[in-house]
Structure prediction request, 577 residues.
Amino acid sequence: MQFREALKAIQEASSTNRPTCRVLLVTGFTPLHLQTFLHAHLQRLLPTKQLVVSTGLYGDLAGTLFRFESSTADMCAVALEWPDLDPRLGFRQLGGWGPKEIADILVCTESKLITIRESLAAVPSHVPLAFSLPTLALPPVFHTPSWQLSAAELRLRHALGEFALRISEKSNIRLINAHRQQAEPPAQVFDFKGELLAGLPYTTCQADRLGQLLAQTLVPAQPKKGLITDLDDTLWAGIAGEIGPQSVSWDLASHAQLHGLYQQLLRSLAEQGVLIGVASKNDPDIVEAAFRRTDILLPRDYVFPVEAHWNAKSESLAKILDTWNLHADSVVFVEDSPSEIAEVKAAHPCMECLRFDAQDYAGVHSLLYRLRDLFAKQILTEEDGMRRTSLRTAGAFRAGAQQESASYENFLREAESKITPDFNNAAVNRRSLELVNKTNQFNLNGIRYTESEWHSKLSLPGSFSLMVSYRDKYGALGVIALLAGQASDAALTVNTWVMSCRAFGRRIEHQCLKLLLERFPAQEIWLEFSPTARNGYLLEFSGSFLGQKPDGPFKLSRTTFLEKCPMLYHEVEMTHD
Prediction:
């Protein structure tokens, strides 16, 4: 981003009336350009917010953090550089670079790191904090040549590493990957003249780059949910239908290690909850034979569904999306053929399509990192581990829903379903915010929250939250629904309601409302519904009680709900309040 573009993005946003999101940028140097670029990149990531980025006192990084509680910031970004640990590790203070000074610098640095670590405790745990370790080169203070590490420098970096490890244990602190910074040429990172004359150590290129990384770390993109892959010359080398399933390869000895690494990454993604499907123009028996090989790195039970036939790839992808109950913009397609990618892209323009070109080693290397970034998560939850197996359960329920009414009732009755409601822990359970910000198809109004906004919402007087966990004889789904709002004896308002698409067809949504009416004495529920491009399922559900589809907020009386609610077969296991 050019500096002029950054200013334009900030100015355009300032002319609109939007909810304010306050960010505190903490540095020991003059943060002028970094502040501008951080503001602009955050504004792009949060287009519905009015960003306000403030800074602390020059040269007082730890003090600014200690005073965080007196601020109103919703987020915090910290850019640490070597002079913040000791001014002699910079160029603006003449304090000596001799052997005696180096010994003192090491002592002072270790002490300052302890002070900074203690100051971070002033930042509440619900406030996301992006922390950048030093990105600039150390000055020429050591007696060894610049291409050789000295014992003193190793000790300095060891102390920094210990510090980073300790602060990373705090759930809200996210460290910038220093290796992404160090790959840049020094001249594109450090502005020596700017540092000496104005205390501005970064080039505009570096300020833009670091501002973007801090912004992405504070507001991470929602991870994609599913990956659909081709097989021949993508998951493995060779055409299985021509050379046979036993002759396709994916190892180093066959010069096909690229495919083995791709399989290895897909297995890793599947184990973190990513759905993996196959769309291949192929004979299904040959495909199954290849997956039966004992040396394959992506086992068959990690892949569902497999669409192997001779129809158009776009048709296969449509079937997989329907099976997963996902929108195309939540899924990535990987294929070796440019023409197949073009055909899929024409039918599913929202889907990210990536090419696996086994002749382009650098391209495949970049693809592996790109896939990891697209599916990256801040934390892995218990529900992530359940997603792969629960998908087949969801398929059984969807198939059951298509049966005759009597058969479906028997199906539900015999599912041995159990629901566990929790009215206490949404404010501290990270799964709750993940559900709110990831869910589209069953989402009351599509409103997203930052961590700070979510914490503030649930801290308001009269607020309530309800998390619902589910399991049945087919398996456990974990926490799959969340409702939040305000409650009193006279009124009950729900302004947040989301449910995972894996839970559709089980009348869990009905049970959620029933639980609220059993918990609170109000005679009607006010639901702050707003139609979106994706929440048609909730629209249909609401219409089943109202007699018509709502186009905005509506009331549902206790009497109407009880009259129209179908039979619920769940066993409810209450948690202790």
